[in-house]
Amino acid sequence: MAQLSDLPKDLIEIILEYPTDVVDLYNYRHEISLDLKLDCASCVTTKRKSCENSAKLTPPSSSGRGIKRMKHNCREVSLELKLGFDPWVIKKTIQTSDVGDLAKLLLAAGLVEQHILPMWDAETIEKIQDGVGVVVWDSDTKSEHQMDFKQWKSGSYVLIKQWKNEFVIRRKLKRGDEVGLYWDQINSRFNFSVLKQL
């Protein structure tokens, strides 16, 4: 525990600039804690105690999933390890049809409906069947490309118009390469990257 006199000089100077009634609050014999505590031993809840007891009594499964589930349930926090933010919510392994003469990038309907359409306004979504002009930013080459985004009658979504020239030929894409896309809401465009090239 620290008192006012134990605080850094800069902080004391700031405090002294306040009106005297504020400073008077610090002149009392109240101590200020500078300690960072993540847990308080006297604050262990009944739920936590019961979870800890069940952890001692319940043997873990051979796969270890039992432990993970127990910790998730007791702490109500997921312990899933994530090593970083991956913006490429739509990942596509290039197929022969994506680099063929039809010149289109076929995108999974579920991923588009989950990650792209919720960020678009209703008016734009209504026009998708006829094709909507979009900008595709190639984040690898820092170049911008005009394309059309369309929903086919089958329900599939495609990027067309200049796909073959601007991406297949220019980026030398071939079957088996992996590309990533996401909708950049701030700049109103698709961001594109070649994630893996064979």
Short summary:
By secondary structure, this protein is α+β, with helices and mostly antiparallel strands. Helix content is 32%, strand content 21%. The model is unreliable at 54-71 (pLDDT under 50).
Structural commentary:
By secondary structure, this protein is an alpha+beta fold. It folds into 2 domains: 4-75, no CATH class; 90-196, DNA-binding pseudobarrel domain (At1g16640 B3 domain), CATH 2.40.330.10. The chain contains 8 helices and 7 strands. It has helices spanning 9-17, 20-27, 46-57, 65-75, 96-99, 109-115, 122-126, 163-169, and strands at residues 90-93, 105-107, 132-138, 143-151, 157-160, 178-184, 189-196. It has a 7-stranded mixed beta sheet. A hairpin with a 4-residue loop joins strand 6 (178-184) and strand 7 (189-196). The radius of gyration is 28 Å and the shape is elongated. The model is unreliable at 54-71 (pLDDT under 50).
